[in-house]
Design goal:
Jelly Rolls, single chain, about 280 residues, Arc Repressor Mutant, subunit A, five-stranded antiparallel sheet, alpha+beta, 2 domains
Length: about 280
């Protein structure tokens, strides 16, 4: 993630394809990171396999004001051709990284100044359940390669590129009609609470809208349905809890599941692995 820095880097698995390189990598960051990086010649797509680093923020120093830093999400992109300043607390993060050829993806950042700024901001938190799922499929294939593994990896990278095309197209196509930041903040604060997830009616009441108004405006703001977003947040909570010493049955209860088996079913259906498998790999 951050080259030329004083930390230890370990590549667990890697593969090369005609569409780009993919690798599972761990870092040891004993001290806070506050570093301006050089310009990458590739689009670097990351998925945290561990909970995202505390304080992870970034800025595109050649495009943004000096003090403008935005949060880095569970999935993010360091786009080719833009110097990036990263900040984060110490930690032991693990990622899967796709190194994508910008020549094949030239339209992502070839827009007007306004659309370009929106796409750069969106790159720091790629809110796409499909991209996340495809990256996790790559993790499984790298760790446990099967028949025609190289073809599966290349196909997955091609699908990721298509989903990212859609993600950036949606950013550029958005117009007025989304939710203001204060309403999005209220929703995020409610979803950050443990327990059973809220109903759409509860969230609509929270932000003083009808369910129809809420769901339509939320999709405009975040580029995905509110239901998909809620599922992603719940899975993120589950991963964070599974990275601690809490027993799996306690994680299930904390997240509002009726039983550990129902939690395991949901987690495996969403991620492709059981909570126990995730804990072992993490």
């Amino acid at each position: 993630m951050m080259s030329n820095s004083p930390f230890e880097r370990l590549t667990e698995k890697s593969a090369n394809t005609s569409l780009g390189r993919v690798e599972i990598m761990g870092l040891c960051l004993p001290e806070p990171v506050d570093k301006c990086l050089g310009i990458s010649r590739e689009h670097l797509l990351y998925l945290h396999l561990t909970p995202r680093l505390n304080g992870a923020r970034a800025s595109f120093v050649d495009r943004w004001a000096k003090n403008r830093f935005e949060d880095v999400g569970q999935v993010f992109i360091r786009p080719a051709g833009f110097a990036t300043h990263f900040r984060a607390d110490p930690g032991l993060p693990r990622f899967i990284i796709c190194r994508l050829d910008p020549a094949r993806l030239a339209t992502w950042f070839d827009e007007t100044a306004s659309a370009l700024d929106q796409r750069l901001a969106g790159s720091l938190n790629v809110r796409s359940a499909r991209v996340s799922a495809l990256l996790r499929r790559l993790v499984q294939e790298l760790r446990q390669p099967g028949l025609a593994s190289e073809a599966v990896i290349e196909l997955s990278i091609a699908q990721i590129s298509i989903e990212l095309d859609r993600f950036y197209f949606a950013i550029a196509a958005r117009t007025n009609g989304g939710l203001p930041q204060w309403r999005l903040k209220l929703i995020d604060e409610r979803l950050s609470q443990y327990g059973a997830p809220p109903t759409l009616a509860e969230l609509a009441q929270l932000v003083n809208l009808s369910v129809r108004q809420l769901t339509r405006a939320f999709r405009t703001s975040r580029g995905m349905s509110l239901g998909t977003y809620m599922e992603e947040r719940r899975i993120q909570q589950a991963r964070q809890l599974l990275s601690s010493d809490i027993e799996i049955k306690e994680v299930a209860a904390k997240l509002g599941f009726a039983s550990p088996s129902s939690f395991t079913y949901m987690f495996r259906n969403a991620t492709g692995e059981t909570p126990r498998d995730y804990r072992q790999h993490g």
